[in-house]
Amino acid sequence: MDRIRIRGGNELRGTIPISGAKNAALPLMIASLLTDDTLTLENVPHLADVEQLIRILGNHGVDYSVTGKRIGQEPGLGRTIHFTARNIVDTTAPYELVSKMRASFWVIGPLLARMHKARVSLPGGCAIGTRPVDLFIDSLRALGATIEIDRGYIVAEAPGGLKGARYVFPKVSVGATHVLLMAASLARGETIIENAAREPEIVDLAACLNAMGAKISGAGTPTITIEGVTALSGARHRVLPDRIETGTYAMAVAMTGGDVTLQGTSADLLSQALGTLGQAGVGVEALDGGIRVFRNGGGIQAVDVMTDPFPGFPTDLQAQFMALMTMADGTSRITETIFENRFMHVQELARLGAKIQLSGQIATVEGVRRLAGAPVMATDLRASVSLVIAGLAAEGETLVNRVYHLDRGFERLEEKLRACGAEVERISG
Ligand code: EPZ
Q1: By CB atoms within 10 Å of each CB, which of 15, 34, 112, 288 scores lowest?
Q2: What whole-number distance in Å separates Cα of residue 217 and Cα of residue 20?
Q3: Residues noted as catalytic
Q4: What does the pLDDT look like over 208-223, one tens digit per residue?
């Protein structure tokens, strides 16, 4: 298994291009199941999760092709991929595939809408919490589906097709909002979703569905209205920039010091997190087509944060922010409200010398003057990258094990960091 070796202590200076968002690309790819026409997605990041979903969609009958490189195009950044689900050959998403990636469960929405049936394995537990699927079941039932659970599978049917309805989510869910958007696009009549997730990735999916002929309004607000249509067509859509990758590199610069331009992203996608960095004493400047993050030699102040659905502070940046707070002046309280078990990085940060007390959903981080490199390992994507950030600022060598987590969500991480002066290398095997 690959590992990443970091020799800490270098400031980061230069430019980091931000990739297309993993969490937008995945639902957009799944939306290709809604039409027999070709959906072309630009700026698709080259990630293990994307490759895995391509395999899963292939099992349902989705063909894909990648457009070749063009003259002047930078190597490796964002690909254009064409997805065509001319014929859906299988409406079952088997355990072997769904258990590898939770988002693949979301195929239930388009399969049910287009084929009027779906049999999808329950996604199962995950390292960050129990992550149930009750909201998917309730909301699809509201659209007229009958749903049963049979030997680990959700068996959903809507023989006469789905029917529009008003559904109020009792709790905000990104995935269930994605699924209901896709399902309602091909339902008969009007669907109104209340307490919808407002994440930029929801807005991106709605924009793509509208380009395919759907009639969706209100995405990005708590109330989304969908006027069902009988068929959707192909479209061409560009995946929005990755706000979590953006925030991750912003926190890396905050931690090491230096001055970096994050290119091809937008401060509007993460104003809460950037505001928090500002309070901590980090320089953040919105540019045309990017963000500049810098430190003027001053220290980092401790700031309290609480994760929340968008526009709140993202849970997907909680681990990275905790890494930053380990070397802040003072003590910060970090409260995780989205997932009940998303503190797997705490004990690993402690190996580097961090002082963190955990009590339920609250981590109290007492800033220390220095971290010292050590071997570490993490059990999920964002926790892994928080260890990379801490390693960049730690004295000596940090070895991050189980790099495959990072490959699920960060395109060319080592290369991007190295280009800004970090000493980072991958050790194969
Ligand atoms: C999405 O997961 C993201 N994944 C996650 O990113 C992200 O952490 C999360 O949203 C929150 O922002 C993708 O977009 C692929 P939820 P999702 O449904 O949709 C509970 C990463 O690192 N819930 O909004 O699965 C759930 O347990 C990943 O890139 C129910 O109770 O998250 C959680 O407490 C990790 N019942 C809360 O809702 C349900 O039926 C929010 O989860 C569904 C969810």
Answers
A1: 288
A2: 24
A3: 126
A4: 999 999 999 999 999 9
